[in-house]
Design brief:
The chain has two helices and no strands. It is an all-alpha fold. The chain has one domain (about 5-70).
Length: about 80
Amino acid sequence: MSDMENWRTALRILRQKLHNELIEYAEKKAAGWQPYYEDDEEETFAEIRYCIRDCETRIRQGEEMERLAADGKLRHKG
C-alpha cells in the first residue's frame, strides 16, 4: 500500500471515529449524562480534528507532488 493510500485510509478511519464519538456523546447528553470533566470530551474531539487536518494536509501535499512529478516539474537534488 502506498503512503497516499495509507493517509486516505487513516483519514477515513479518523472521520468515522469522530462521527461515532459525536453520536455517542450526543446520546449520553440526551440521556442526562454529565461528564466529570466537560473538557475531556472536547479535548478528544479537538485531537481527532487535528489528526484529520494533518491527514488532509499530507494528502494534498502528496497529490501536489504526484502532479508535479507527472508534469516533469519535480526535481530531485542529488
